[in-house]
Amino acid sequence: MPLLLNVLNPDAGAARPSDSVQQTIDAYRAGEQAFIGISNPTDTDLAWLTDTFGLHRLAVEDSQFGHQRAKMEKYGDIYFVVLKPTVYVDELEEIRFGEAHVFVGPRFVIWLIKDSLRSEVHSQEVMEAAFARLEDEPTPMKFLHQLMDGLVDGYIPVVEGLENDGDEIEDSLFGDNHEASEISQRIYGLLNEVSDFKRAVKPVAQMLELIMGRLRTQANASAEQQQEETLELLRHYRDVHDHAVHVSERVDDLFTSLENALQVNATIVAERQNDDMKKISAWAAIFVAPTIVGSIYGMNFDDMPELHWTFGYPFALGLMVAVSLGLWLVFKKKEWL
């Protein structure tokens, strides 16, 4: 029977692994399979993992420092996979990213949790649930399928949360209750979140394609019974791949939609500024007309028409009002006011 061991935060700084881990190592050396999960491994943990399972030093170095992009690398017959589980906090419109490093060999899986996104109890529940979903004897590749299936399923609520915020932004674009600068800031912030999420999602489909390629090669070189088992596993990976591609396409569509929303918002801001300029120009023209009339009659020349006329003053006032009213009607008709 394969071994399941989820060791979370073993004795830090120990010169050798804990007794439970040592039992798993002994069983692995005797030909059993080993499934080990460690939360925030220390340098000592990585050292004995490297010695026991023959991990490549470059992959171990990546696990040591963390903060890796989502990727898959192959060192001989061992896969090194970096996964980025995510949780979307709708109230803050922020995505919280986790990081898990998975080493998958012919007879072992080492799952290193490199973040505090999940509690230790939840991490253990995830690993045990992955085993519970396996219908027959667990293998490293079947277990990896369950991990990646859960990862992609976890991306769907994140996409839905981002799309919901995108819909709210589109609704507020043409409303009068939001300042343009606030909308621009919200769009820009959401674009950054979607961009970060896109970098976590995109490589997953590529990882699955590499795995499926390997499984096809194994199926062609296997006996009939083993070939059918490999093809069945390939079908399961293909299903996860379809979901990953679907999520990736939704993220691309959302990113494009937000870019368009940012451009539309800039256009709306320009139109509103143009309307404001029209109003300012119209009122300036209306107030300039009386100023012109008043300046003409304020020249104080001795020989001027209507200068000594009894009705000169009311005529000048009436002319100011008439010109201003005429301009107001013209601008009103043109919808400048």
Automatic annotation (TrEMBL):
<protein>
    <submittedName>
        <fullName>Magnesium and cobalt transport protein CorA</fullName>
    </submittedName>
</protein>
<keyword id="KW-1003">Cell membrane</keyword>
<feature type="transmembrane region" description="Helical">
    <location>
        <begin position="280"/>
        <end position="299"/>
    </location>
</feature>
<feature type="transmembrane region" description="Helical">
    <location>
        <begin position="311"/>
        <end position="331"/>
    </location>
</feature>
<keyword id="KW-0813">Transport</keyword>
<dbReference type="Pfam" id="PF01544">
    <property type="entry name" value="CorA"/>
</dbReference>
<keyword id="KW-0472">Membrane</keyword>
<comment type="similarity">
    <text>Belongs to the CorA metal ion transporter (MIT) (TC 1.A.35) family.</text>
</comment>
<keyword id="KW-0812">Transmembrane</keyword>
<keyword id="KW-1133">Transmembrane helix</keyword>
<dbReference type="InterPro" id="IPR045863">
    <property type="entry name" value="CorA_TM1_TM2"/>
</dbReference>
<dbReference type="InterPro" id="IPR002523">
    <property type="entry name" value="MgTranspt_CorA/ZnTranspt_ZntB"/>
</dbReference>
<dbReference type="InterPro" id="IPR045861">
    <property type="entry name" value="CorA_cytoplasmic_dom"/>
</dbReference>
